[in-house]
């Protein structure tokens, strides 16, 4: 047994913070998680536990989303600076101009922060729908920055781009289907606007991972080589060839393997150069999204990871283009990318309280031996005794696992009473706990016995909805780092999986970052009566923030927008709080009217008075209570 005292470094290693946090999160000497939004431990530091205390002081309840705006700024700066650095290092003859794809996090405050941080770099926006375009038109006001329009388009979508053109903005309509081009040309003539046209290439390369359907023959988007040639001829015929200013590809999100990018850039830059050869001179080469986030911290080609860093990514694109352009003797294009996930994932986390513990081993029936006990109970008692006398743990584990299965079958066939079944269950869990102690932390124990701590582990019930707040953990088994935010100066004493408060057995988190692989349990501390125990789920700023659904009518979370402030004692201030959805508003979205509901309850109350079930003087209190509840938060009050 290792009896050296528990250190903060042990906590960092247990939760693998260094591996996944990309320098943004640490564990501080108080045993709290803290953020370094500038990636500089000597710079701005924000203690998450202190943020949670501040949240409570403002009267807001948990669960809550905590947004670190300074992280967004750092991410935008890093992306732009890294491209600039690589361009400078390799002598590439053009610049980088990124855009942020709004769909990854449409929150106005997020979009505003990104645009403000990106202003010096002419960082723009990408929209994929009319609603997103309306937001981009209003907020992306830098005339030098691009507004890139992807997704399926109708007349209204295209006319909105003309509006932008009239405002002097760089609106690029990316043609995904040939039919869109015909519509665009017709409308451009009708409204006398010179559009900026982008062509999306349907890539031959097959990407991997969860988004592989974004490329290859059956991809939903993009023009094949022959369609591109047809588009070129069509635009030539309409005297609009020079309107093609951008070439685009996007082969899916979270590209874990850099080699996929390397190959994609080779294919894409070749198309670019071949077009130049036939007189189509394109300004911008837009390499889409896909820049991955290392959620599980393994630096591998796992779906939740990436085997490269930002610098390598930028080099893959810049050097890739440089080499191919030089081979064809074509000028270097301006490089555009549409990274969303990598820009936003780190900036927000969810903090939720553990509200209860469910432990299968928590069975406390009296098991003192009695005369004429059922033989199943006798067998279990014998195994317990043999274990106490030092029998081989693995063989006892086999025997009791078999025995309890048989006992449960026998119960179903009517051979045991309720009391007998309860006794057998209690004995089984007692033996399993003894086995656990016997195994201890023996590194030589058989792998099979790893099941024992798993079977004994608790379920920690957390006050949130997986479906609202981290839908990808359910939908695509996205791994997200989870860490208790406090007591990290104490050794965790238990293992637990996490379950949410929806009535759905899928509403659980049982995939965590382990030392070498993904594990099913998270090390946790005992819950103490009268004390909050909170966990934070990190890297939720991309997609999770905005894609959730209302399963069980749990609405959006309370939210705080945090800024670092070195001169203040706490090191931060909360600039804005946004209240989560009330029950009334959640119900409204599904056509319930709170007025009608209150009226219906009143009608039933009248009838209850008539039948003498409630007293007249009680009714107004009860109805007020119902009304009050409608106004409140959808999550548990703890
Ligand atoms: C979704 C999407 C993006 C964003 O991709 P990330 O992997 O999140 O960076 C970029 N471009 C297009 C066309 C998209 O559909």
Tally of strands: 23
| Radius of gyration from CA coordinates | 30 Å
Helicity, as a percent range: 40-55%
Q: Which of globular, elongated, flat, extended, rod-shaped describes the shape?
A: globular
What distance lies between the first and last C-alpha atoms, to the nearest angstrom?
38 Å
Structural class: alpha/beta
For the largest beta-sheet, the strand count, sense and barrel status come to: 10 strands, mixed
The amount of beta strand, in percent, is 15-25%
What compounds sit in this structure?
pyridoxal-5'-phosphate
**Count of alpha and pi helical runs:** 22
Mean pLDDT over all positions: 95
Q: Please, could you describe this protein's structure?
A:
This protein is α/β, with parallel strands linked by helices. Helices cover 41% and strands 15% of the residues. The strands form four sheets. Strands 4, 13, 14, 15, 16, 17, 20, 21, 22 and 23 form a ten-stranded mixed β-sheet that branches. The chain has an eight-stranded parallel β-sheet with strand order 5-6-7-8-9-10-11-12. The chain has a three-stranded antiparallel β-sheet with strand order 1-2-3. α4 (69-90) packs parallel to α5 and α13 (375-388) runs antiparallel to α14. The longest helix is centred in the N-terminal third of the chain and has 22 residues, at 69-90. The structure holds pyridoxal-5'-phosphate. Pyridoxal-5'-phosphate binds at residues 101, 103-104, 126, 128, 150, 250, 253-254, 288-291, 338-341.
């Amino acid at each position: 047994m290792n009896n050296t005292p528990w250190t903060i470094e042990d906590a960092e290693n247990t939760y693998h913070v260094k591996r996944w946090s990309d320098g943004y999160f640490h564990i501080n000497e108080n045993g709290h998680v803290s953020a370094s939004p500038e990636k500089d431990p000597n710079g701005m530091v924000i203690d998450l536990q202190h943020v949670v205390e501040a949240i409570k002081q403002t009267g807001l309840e948990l669960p809550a989303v905590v947004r670190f705006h300074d992280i967004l700024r750092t991410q935008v700066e890093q992306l732009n600076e890294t491209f600039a650095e690589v361009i400078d290092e390799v002598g590439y003859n053009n610049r980088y101009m990124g855009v942020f794809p709004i769909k990854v996090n449409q929150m106005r405050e997020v979009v505003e922060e990104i645009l403000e941080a990106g202003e010096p770099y002419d960082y723009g926006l990408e929209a994929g729908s009319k609603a997103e375009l309306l937001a981009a038109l209003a907020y992306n006001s830098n005339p030098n920055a691009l507004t890139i329009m992807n997704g399926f388009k109708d007349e209204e979508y295209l006319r909105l781009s003309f509006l932008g053109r009239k405002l002097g903005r760089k609106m690029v309509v990316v043609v995904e289907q040939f039919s869109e081009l015909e519509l665009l040309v017709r409308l451009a003539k009708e409204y006398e606007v010179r559009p900026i046209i982008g062509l999306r290439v349907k890539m031959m390369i097959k990407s991997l991972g969860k988004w592989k359907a974004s490329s290859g023959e059956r991809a939903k988007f993009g023009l094949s080589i022959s369609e591109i040639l047809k588009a070129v001829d069509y635009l030539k015929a309409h005297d609009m060839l020079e309107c093609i200013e951008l070439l685009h590809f996007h082969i899916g999100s979270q590209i874990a393997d850099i080699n996929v990018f390397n190959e994609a850039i080779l294919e894409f830059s070749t198309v670019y150069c071949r077009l130049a050869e036939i007189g189509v001179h394109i300004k911008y080469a837009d390499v889409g999204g896909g820049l991955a986030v290392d959620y599980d911290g393994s630096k591998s080609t796992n779906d939740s990871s990436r085997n490269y860093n930002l610098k390598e990514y930028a080099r893959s694109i810049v050097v890739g283009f440089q080499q191919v352009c030089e081979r064809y003797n074509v000028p270097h294009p301006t490089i555009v990318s549409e990274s969303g996930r990598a820009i936003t994932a780190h900036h927000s986390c969810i903090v939720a309280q553990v509200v209860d513990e469910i432990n299968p081993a928590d069975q406390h029936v009296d098991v003192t031996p009695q005369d004429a006990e059922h033989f199943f109970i006798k067998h279990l008692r014998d195994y317990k005794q043999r274990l106490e006398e030092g029998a081989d743990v693995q063989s006892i584990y086999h025997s009791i696992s078999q025995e309890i299965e048989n006992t449960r079958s026998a119960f179903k066939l009517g051979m045991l009473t309720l009391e007998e079944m309860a006794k057998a269950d209690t004995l089984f869990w007692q033996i399993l706990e003894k086995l656990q102690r016997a195994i201890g932390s023996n590194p030589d124990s058989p792998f099979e016995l790893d099941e024992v701590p798993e079977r004994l582990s608790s379920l920690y019930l957390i006050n949130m909805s997986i479906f609202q707040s981290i839908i990808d953990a359910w939908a695509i088994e996205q791994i997200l780092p989870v860490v208790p935010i406090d007591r990290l100066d104490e050794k965790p004493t238990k293992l637990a999986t996490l379950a949410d408060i929806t009535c759905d057995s899928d509403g659980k988190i049982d995939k965590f970052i382990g030392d070498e692989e993904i594990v099913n349990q998270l090390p946790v501390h005992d819950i103490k009566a009268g004390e909050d125990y909170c966990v934070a789920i990190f890297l939720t700023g991309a997609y999770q923030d905005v894609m959730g659904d209302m399963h069980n009518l749990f609405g959006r979370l309370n939210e705080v927008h945090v800024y670092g402030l070195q001169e203040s004692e706490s090191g931060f201030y909360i600039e804005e709080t946004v209240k989560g959805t009330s029950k009334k508003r959640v119900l409204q979205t599904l056509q319930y009217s709170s007025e009608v509901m209150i009226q219906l309850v009143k009608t039933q109350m009248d009838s209850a008075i008539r039948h003498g079930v409630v007293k007249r003087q009680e009714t107004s209190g009860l109805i007020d209570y119902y009304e009050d509840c409608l106004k409140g938060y959808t999550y548990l009050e703890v």
